[in-house]
Design goal:
405 residues; 2 domains; single chain; mainly alpha; Growth Hormone, Chain: A
Length: 405
């Protein structure tokens, strides 16, 4: 069902007000995802201070992704019924609370609670912010909705890493900056006009609907694993790369691991934008080749202890991550019946955030019992085999995969 919009609030594309609102909502989406990765450089410090295991570290990371996924599946359509503003402002308030819990956290339980609240807030805001951007400008807003999440992830890592190395109070200063940012964004959004007319059905919209139509099952089997591998690698980077960097590079400098992690989502976001008009089969092949190359470099860098190999691996894997994300989404939506498209989008998120969260817990268990370096080599090798399998299947995509987005 199309959104109901107020014609009096329609904004001319490219007008100063439209551009200002695009900046506001894009910066909010960017900021929420920056916070998702901001704790990453702090994980080794939390681990030293609180004494939890590698397995618990990955659980703390995964709680965020699972909470985000559950909230997104339940509330993804809520802003279509009650409006964008109330959903986004509520999410920012909840995100502010999570930042304060992080700020005061002195136990593992408090860290888990902060990540849980953060995941709920991000899940609540993600679809509403994406829709708000498209409401303002279909073309540019849609582009920002694709680019901002991964660019936010990369910037949060880098900014937090620099603060860890330069601030006397890194456990507090990162969250104070983010809390101030969300407060300003919430106040600005409160004064914006609502562009969606509220309508009945909000409660019914809270029932998760995941659709697996017959028309996309071949795509799920043949293409989706490349997207799942990319998200699994991203989860590994965000949870365990700081520890791996300290281990193989013999350096505790947060900026080193921060740069290595920064390269993966940054490259992924840029590639997803750059390839959005390319043929799906071409995108999937690029994803497979880039992922296999990047994972091979990651293994070599881990064995040899070379930062340059790890960095090149991050760039190449980032290309594969962005291309795999884009190619899978294009292929699934192009084949989805219109009446089941929202359910297919929910399925796409399910196939992204579950591998983002669950495999890294297994990696944490492996690191605790077998060591981080052997676990990294095994994890990367398994993902490489998955990507090689998808690359082999991609040879037959040109004849039967639609190219529409």
């Amino acid at each position: 069902m199309p959104l109901t919009r107020s014609h009096s609030d329609a904004l001319p594309s490219g007008s100063p007000r439209a551009m200002g609102l695009l900046l506001l909502y894009a910066s909010t989406l960017f900021g929420l995802l920056a916070a998702a990765s901001a704790p990453t450089p702090l994980y080794p410090l939390y681990q030293q201070t609180l004494g939890f295991s590698d397995t618990m570290l990955t659980v703390i990371f995964a709680v965020y992704a699972l909470a985000l996924l559950a909230t997104l599946l339940i509330t993804g359509a809520l802003s279509d019924f009650i409006g964008r503003r109330p959903v986004i402002v509520a999410a920012l308030l909840l995100q502010g609370i999570s930042m304060w819990v992080f700020h005061e956290a002195g136990t593992t339980t408090e860290l888990l609670m902060a990540r849980l609240l953060q995941g709920v807030a991000t899940g609540l805001a993600t679809s509403a912010l994406g829709a708000a951007l498209v409401d303002i400008d279909t073309r540019l807003g849609g582009l920002l909705a694709v680019a901002c999440p991964m660019l936010g992830l990369s910037s949060g890592i880098l900014g937090s890493s620099l603060l860890v190395d330069s601030s006397a109070t890194p456990f507090q200063s990162i969250y104070e900056i983010l809390l101030a940012l969300y407060s300003l964004q919430a106040m600005a959004i409160v004064f914006d006009r609502e562009r969606v007319v509220p309508r009945p059905g909000a409660v019914d919209s809270l029932r998760p609907a995941v659709a697996v139509p017959q028309s996309i099952r071949a795509v799920i089997w043949r293409i989706a694993p490349i997207n799942m591998a990319g998200w699994a690698l991203c989860g590994f980077y965000l949870a365990l790369m700081p520890a791996l960097s300290a281990d193989v590079l013999a350096s505790d400098a947060a900026w080193r691991s921060g740069v290595l992690i920064f390269l993966l989502p940054l490259t992924g976001g840029l590639v997803a934008v750059a390839l959005r008009h390319r043929d799906t089969a071409v995108i999937v092949r690029i994803a497979g080749i880039a992922m296999i190359t990047g994972l091979s470099l990651m293994i070599a860098g881990t064995i040899k202890g070379h930062a340059s190999l790890l960095a090149l691996g991050g760039v190449s894997s980032g290309i594969g991550f962005g291309a795999g994300f884009l190619g899978t989404k294009k292929a699934m939506l192009a084949r989805a019946p219109i009446e089941q498209r929202s359910g297919v989008i929910s399925l796409f998120f399910l196939l992204s955030y579950l591998p983002f969260s669950l495999p890294v817990i297994l990696a944490g268990i492996g690191a605790q019992h077998a060591g981080l370096v052997p676990t990294t080599i095994g994890f990367a090798s398994l993902l490489g085999l998955i990507c090689a399998w998808v690359l082999g299947k991609s040879q037959s995509l040109a004849s039967d995969t639609p190219t529409g987005a």
